[in-house]
Amino acid sequence: MNQDQKKQQVAEAALAYVKDDTIVGVGTGSTVNYFIDALASKKDRIVGAVSSSEASTLRLKQHGIEVFELNSVDQLDVYIDGADEITEHMHMIKGGGAALTREKIVAAVAKSFVCIVDDSKLVPVLGHFPLPVEVIPMARSYVARELAKLGGDPVYRQGVVTDNGNVILDVHNLHILEPMALEAKINAIVGVVTNGLFAQRGADVALIATDNGVITKQ
Ligand code: 5RP
């Protein structure tokens, strides 16, 4: 089974976590795109969705799924999203698609975070995938210097502006043994909006597509 087939398989498995008559939190990325396509099959049984990016909003609307502003919703039952890396402790790196800040916000409002990945994303230690950090544009060079002090090699993601009008620094060569502490430390740098470590609020359920089917971890 190739990676795309695994993404589709795990996206379809996530439908089991979507309850009737609820508003679903929807992430961003190629795996989530498969999820949105699958969600369309039960669009008449849900109230709608809250989206974590303009790209997901567009895809949801193209399927005729109503998209609500997060500010009009008190709580979400479930948030479904992919990841760039995930550990057995359910800590993740996210933000490969530059949507990390809205993803973190929508995840915070959800009772349960269901992470959908193929098995290439499961790692023993986070950091092989460069850690995305969303930064206020005028703070880019300052934040890059501060990130270098933490031992990483920040690289400006050229040509990318986030949905919030900010820029992304991808921090290479990190070996993240204490993800919760590093998440807090990076977020404390002035000019950082947020970083792509999802450790303080990790996944509650991980659905992992393998050649032998979807494994569930919780
Ligand atoms: C976007 C994300 C995605 O969840 C992450 O990049 C995984 O994407 P894909 O499903 O395309 O591999 O965090 O900001």
Automatic annotation (TrEMBL):
Substrate binds at T28, G29, S30, T31, D81, G82, A83, D84, K94, G95, G96, G97, K121. The active site is at E103 (proton acceptor). InterPro entries: NagB/RpiA_transferase-like, Ribose5P_isomerase_typA_subgr, Ribose5P_isomerase_type_A. The keyword Chaperone does not apply. Pathway: Carbohydrate degradation; pentose phosphate pathway; D-ribose 5-phosphate from D-ribulose 5-phosphate (non-oxidative stage): step 1/1. GO terms for molecular function: ribose-5-phosphate isomerase activity. It catalyses: aldehydo-D-ribose 5-phosphate = D-ribulose 5-phosphate. Its EC number is 5.3.1.6. It holds the Pfam family Rib_5-P_isom_A. The keyword Lipid metabolism does not apply. Keywords: Isomerase. Belongs to the ribose 5-phosphate isomerase family. Homodimer. Catalyzes the reversible conversion of ribose-5-phosphate to ribulose 5-phosphate. This is Ribose-5-phosphate isomerase A. It comes from Fluctibacter halophilus.
